[in-house]
Amino acid sequence: MFLSSIRVFNSIGSPNIRFQMAIRQSSDTAKFREYLNAAKEVVILSGAGISAESGIPTFRGAGGFWRKYQASSLATPEAFHTSPSLVWEFYHYRREVAAKAQPNAGHLAIADYEKRNGADKKVTVITQNVDGLHKRAGTNNLIELHGNLYKTRCTKCKEVLINTDSPICEALANRGAPDANIVGSEIPIYSLPHCKKPHCGGLLRPHIVWFGEGLDSNVLEQAGNAMAGCDVCLVVGTSSVVYPAAMFAPQAAQRGAIVAEFNIEPTPATPDFHFYFEGPCGTTLPGVLSAN
Ligand code: BJW
Ligand code: ZN
Predict the structure, then answer these.
(1) Contact present, 236 and 45 (Cβ < 8 Å)
(2) In the chain, what's the furthest Cα-to-Cα distance?
(3) Closest-lying ligand to the alpha carbon of 265?
(4) What predicted TM-score, i.e. pTM, was given to this entire model?
(5) With DSSP H G I counted as helix, E B as strand and the rest as coil, what are the percentages for the chain, rounded to 5?
């Protein structure tokens, strides 16, 4: 079924109109699979929506609150500077939620697609998610743009380490409850996670890219290369409002790659794309990525 027979002119990115050409958008699975079969390089760009069906709240919308705070207001260096205790409680909670969650049909369809096609095509998953579910589903060629809940970085010596301890330190045991009536957080800094390197002992922070922080340059370069080379891109469960990830797929479409979006509702970038598959991606992705 064609979603729209209207021609959609994109005016996002004002004052510069990003597209000169019109895109006729489709939701024709068979047609999209033809492009996918012919592709040599495929990128799947995912966001919080792909983990929603695993029970992990998205950032924007109703689920994007922890206590009285909007999640994005705690994901900042300023919040960590003001209250490392509060921010660590928030991340402790999210580590526990993600650890208990299981990859869903969307994650599994992507991992299975890579397994079946990895020999013939370059398949890259670029995720904005920090929950580790793509890796746990079996995805190999994975770029985590915004870091990972189970990595820490020392604020002093900058060492990055994997840490899956639960809780990450004794003081966080039984902390992090999302109840909106809980006010404040007063774990003393010395009881929060600290670097164990000799002569360092710096405060650890989550190895997550917070608002206002630059993305790791190597990660950004890898993502840029994958985006620049892809013939087909699937944009899955992201609101496409957070940069730089938000510009990846529109730029790919602009240079001629075929881009398909999978979301439960349209996003500001939807008019930029050739295909739009509406619905929960745990249902729509397996339909598009399956073997036949
Ligand atoms: C489903 C579904 C189902 C639900 N099936 N779908 C250029 C212009 C304007 C601003 C900037 C700019 N460049 C940089 C900025 C500033 C800022 C930014 O983008 N701000 C915007 C909000 C305007 N960007 C940055 O600060 C970045 N740094 C940077 O660029 O450095 C250089 C620089 C700095 C400052 C100025 C200029 C340059 C860093 C961004 C780091 C993002 N960090 C976060 C939090 C940390 C992670 C964590 O703690 O977990 O990452 S923010 C949050 O948003 C998180 C996500 O990865 C990210 C993206 O969200 P996502 O994944 O799209 O989730 P949602 O909730 O928004 O959407 C879910 C979607 O799923 C929805 O569409 C649903 O409909 C859908 N859905 N169920 C399918 N079942
Ligand atoms: Zn250190």
Answers:
(1) yes
(2) 66
(3) 1
(4) 0.93
(5) 35, 20, 45
Strand ranges (E), the chain: 41-46, 65-66, 69-70, 122-127, 142-144, 147-154, 160-162, 204-208, 232-236, 258-263, 275-278
Query: Tell me, what amino acid is at 148?
Result: N
Please state, in angstroms and rounded to a whole number, the distance separating the CA atoms of residues 85 and 184.
9
Query: Is the model's pLDDT at 14 over the cut of 80?
Result: no
Measure 30 CA to ligand 1 centroid, in angstroms. 31
Give distance in angstroms: CA of 205 to centre of ligand 1. 20
Ligand lying closest to the C-alpha of residue 194: 2
HEC-encoded secondary structure of 15-67 = CCCCCCCCECCECCHHHHHHHHHHCCEEEEEECCHHHHCCCCCCCCCCCCEEC
Name the token pair of 87: 């921010």
- Interval 148-166: pLDDT, tens: 999 999 999 999 999 999 9
Residue 22 pLDDT: 61
